[in-house]
C-alpha cells in the first residue's frame, strides 16, 4: 500500500472512531454516517485502483 493509500485508510478508520464517539455521546447524525460511508467507498476504490 503506497503512502497516500495508507493515509486515506487511516483517515477512514479515524473517521469511524470519531463518528462512533459522536453518536454515543451526542446522538446519531445521518449526515456524519453518510459522509463516512462515502469516505470508505473512496478508500476502497483507491485500494482497488492501486491494486491493479
Give the SSE string: HH
- Identify the quaternary structure here: single chain
Biggest sheet, in brief?
A: none
Unreliable spans are: none
Helix fraction bin: over 70%
Distance from N terminus to C terminus (CA atoms, Å) equals: 12 Å
What's the pLDDT, averaged over the residues?
A: 87
Question: What Rg, in angstroms, do the CA atoms define?
Answer: 12 Å
C-alpha geometry? elongated
Please count the helical segments: 2
Structural class: mainly alpha
Q: What is the count of β-strands?
A: 0
Instruction: Report strand %.
Output: under 5%
Would you write up a description of this structure?
The model has no long low-confidence stretch (mean pLDDT 87). With 52 residues, the chain is an all-alpha fold. It contains two helices and no strands. Helix content is 87%, strand content 0%. The protein has helices at 3-25, 30-51.
Amino acid at each position: 500500500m503506497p503512502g497516500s493509500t495508507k493515509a486515506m485508510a487511516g483517515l477512514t478508520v479515524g473517521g469511524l472512531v470519531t463518528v462512533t464517539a459522536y453518536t454515543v455521546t451526542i446522538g446519531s447524525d445521518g449526515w456524519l454516517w453518510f459522509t463516512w460511508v462515502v469516505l470508505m467507498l473512496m478508500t476502497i476504490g483507491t485500494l482497488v485502483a492501486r491494486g491493479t
